[in-house]
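2024-03-11 09:14:02 DEBUG pipeline.ingest accepted 1 chain
2024-03-11 09:14:02 DEBUG pipeline.ingest length=98
2024-03-11 09:14:03 DEBUG pipeline.predict start
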Amino acid sequence: MLLHQIIETNDNGTSALLTEMLYKYKKSLYTYYKDLFCCEPVLMVTTVFNAAQYALIVPSNEFNEAIEHYLQNEEMTDQEKEEQNELISFQSIMLKDF
């Protein structure tokens, strides 16, 4: 996947990207999103498997809203959404530390 395709998919905000694809573009993505968001970008890790992680890049000042927006598309109970919210918050890191 090319850099512009990663940015287009991330800007959609509903489908997470495989972090393995983001790794080789991490400096370019950090520069692009730091300028775009005017704050530190966060790598919001949405799903973790044994061999893969999926994530979105979101602004740090809208992190909670990004989690809510992502979870709107999932069919879960309120309790499951709360648990998923905590899990995403725990797994996510600042993009500069990726």
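2024-03-11 09:14:41 DEBUG pipeline.report The chain has one domain: 3-97.
2024-03-11 09:14:41 DEBUG pipeline.predict end
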